[in-house]
Amino acid sequence: MATPQQVKEYLACWFQLGKRVSIHHGTKFLYPQPVLQGDRYSPEFEKCWQLLLTGQGLGDCYLEGTNQKIAELLEPSWDLIKCARCQIPIPLKVTGVEHTACVCSDMADLPNLDLPSPHRPVSSRDYLFKICSDLIKKNEE
Ligand SMILES: [Zn+2]
After folding, report:
1. Domain that holds residue 9
2. Fewer CB within 10 Å: C terminus or N terminus of the chain?
3. Burial status of residue 130 (CB atoms within 10 A of its CB: 0-12, 13-18, 19 or more)
4. Do residues 129 and 118 lie in contact, with contact meaning Cβ atoms separated by under 8 Å?
């Protein structure tokens, strides 16, 4: 089962590639931009994620162009695995063979190594902190 955090990261990848989420039976779309702001997710994306998490008043929410319901991703019968081609997560139904094609399936130019691939926000402070604490640990050994 995917954790809410994994689903959130997956949606962040989805939106970073310019894809949308359809709501209200496909009559409206959510596509927060930008997705990232500095070392964190943007307020636009966070707001959208909270909205999708509660799902209130949105009707069924789908990844645009797929039969993948967002709410399903949070169910135990679904998991997220990494695409062998581009390393972006793909929803996989654990108890069956049904799965949604990876976001890259209709994007011939992926993976594009000349562009930054979709990623989590990177906090350089946390990163430095980790290096420091690793060094301290090493010295203590
Ligand atoms: Zn892929």
Report:
1. 4-140
2. C
3. exposed
4. no
Query: Which three-class secondary structure state does DSSP give residue 35?
Result: coil
Q: How remote is the CA of residue 141 from the centroid of ligand 1, in Å? A: 42
CA-nearest of 93, 101, 94 to 14 is 101
pLDDT in tens, 74-119: 888 899 999 999 989 999 888 756 667 788 888 877 777 787 788 8
Dist. CA 29 → ligand 1 center (Å): 23
Instruction: Say whether pLDDT at 65 is over 70.
Output: yes
Protein residues with C-beta less than 5 angstroms from the ion ligand 1: 83, 85-86, 88, 102, 104
Domain total for the chain? 1
